[in-house]
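Sequence in, structure out. First:
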Amino acid sequence: MTLPGKIKEKAKTSFGEIVKVRRHLHKYPELSFREHETSAFIAARLRDYGIEYRTVADTGLVAKIPGRKGNGRTIALRAELDALPVQEETGLPFSSARPGVMHACGHDVHAACLLGSAGIIKDMEKDFAGTVYFIFQPGEETLPGGAKKMLDEDLFDGDEPDLIIAQHVLPELGAGEAGIRPGMYMASGDEIYIEISGEGGHGAMPHTTVDTVAIMSQVVIALQQVASRFAPPHIPTVLSFGKFIANGATNVIPPEAIIEGTFRTMDETWRAKAHEKITAIASGIAAGMGAACRVEIRKGYPVLHNDPESSLLVRHLMEEFIGTGNVRELPLRMTTEDFAWFARKYPAVFYRLGTGMPGKLLHSPHFDINEQAMETGTGLLAWLALSFLGGDH
């Protein structure tokens, strides 16, 4: 039997167990950097498989399987462990047992597939040379991101990978499909916090006050020019504000107004310039109208760039495993991903696994998947790793 055939058979055999793992993780989600039970659950499974591992970044795990055919290349596979502060509304029998916490981004699926692939690769360790690392990463959803924390702790002990791969679900793709985009794929992401303050007072006498609400309203409108006029036309840019707090009353102008938002782009040089523009615009409007202004920009994840040469290889291997017609070219995406920290240090590929439920969107309280996709996801990860290392075909 060929290597793809062997892997597909093993993925099919282990499918029921993979589903159980996913459902357990889904029922007991934990927020970023609090994934203690999740980490312990996965560690127990790794021990059952006879796979060595160690703890990194408090709740993260790095497992390792060396092939028995001698020295060779090194590849790393990564999945995340954390859930989101979302109240689940799926009605599933394995819905979150923790109010206000849900695996709404598919990290339960990622971890289950990675664990399943580790089991397959362990069964086949005599068939390949080189080393496979399995990264179970905490805190992808919260700055500064678990990827950076793990890298700061030298998670590979000097055994640097020749390639690192991450698989992430995408409801818009069908179950059994996958998507990839070489080069620039996902945006950088920064959190924007602006506070306008001044002497508040009676709404009937605005001339005696500093009208923080009116000033902040002008700031919000003026900042739209960062994306519409200052951004180079060829660089995707988004600046959005989702929170505006001015806690006055019908007849009270409050002493402060606050907005919070996000800035996304695909170019690091423009990103730095945009930060300066945001600060200058907000501060200038406030000063001109007699208010004080405080701008805080929390720099988040960098642009995610898929190594072009590695992406072409991964696409070819995907087509060999699931069929050419099941591999899609992905569009640019303005969401962020802390896997970008890995991609800045190593040749990296971040691809999408279709879950076949386009109405069950990511980060939604209704998010769900066609679980059959996990058989594909588990087998695909094992196939990519063993093919890269030169397993027997």
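Second:
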Amino acid sequence: MSGLLQCDFTRRFANGPVIKAAFALSTETPGVTVLFGPSGSGKTTVLRCLAGLDEPDEGFIRMNGEAWCDKASGLHLPPRKRALGFVFQDGALFPNLSAAGNLAYPLTGIPRAERQRRVQEMSELLGLAGLEHRRPGELSGGQRQRVALGRALIRRPRLVLMDEPLTALDRPARDALRNDLRRVFRELAIPVLLVTHDRDEAILLGDRMLMMQDGEIQQDGPPAEVFTRPRTPALAEALGIGTVVKARVLGREGGLVRLLAGTAELLAPCDEPLGEWVHACIRGEGVAVEKDDDAHAHADASPRNRLRATITGMERIGPLVRLHLDCGFPLEALVTTWACEDLALKESDNVLAMIKATAIHLIPVT
């Protein structure tokens, strides 16, 4: 089938995991598909099999109707025959070549004038103009990754594979390159499969997300949807949802479901039929906190769920603080350091945890 990457394969490791991948990716509609999941879930193995750097034990990989790998017939095309680009985590540049030399390396069999034109075009596109004669050791980490990306893109491949390309960079370089990647991908209109375990990267760059866990793709959809509406409690935890609590369904009122979680009651939206028990998933960003002394000031506040709680722990995470709360069940809240300072929050403080009903996602207990 034209315009489609199709794969359905299994890779087994002796005395180790079994990795399975079954999905299709359009190559006619350029976009970024994110392969997301925790370390050890199999993301890099899938990427290496697609690139031809590793070989599945069974199944097939087809690009636009052409077989790249077919275990039934014994076919396995080497990487150089797959017409794709690959960006490694560490860039994997040739240290003895200049930035221009690394960019031009894939352009074998192309006239010199055309090679020079493409190198100049790619240098300008990726913000490398003026750095073409520097070797990798003379470039910053972000600049090296831009060269690696340009080398993967310069032949206009049918597909670009990227394996955690921003992980090794410091935060300023990572943010700057991430902001440029989206623009570059749109300008070149080349489909990308990006492996990452970074939530911000997945949301900012991804059009579609394949969520991997335990060696298999467990959920497929737009990144924002997958992050906010995981299908299982295990996926919710892997996606960084801080609170997953088992709750009993008490009934419905005003289009909302009334729940009992621990000793606290919650209201949450749900249009689907539910059994007696559900898992209530609450992201830390969806929880606001105020001092309990101010509770009377919030009688008419918009959050449906206002729970008295005690702070049992605090962890600073960059500009945020993760609060561990006891509100009749264990609850996590993510608040800014400024909010913590303004409220003078500390462990054992009594607070008011406010949760909008729409911030609660329900998963039926099966």
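Remark: The chain has nine helices and 21 strands.
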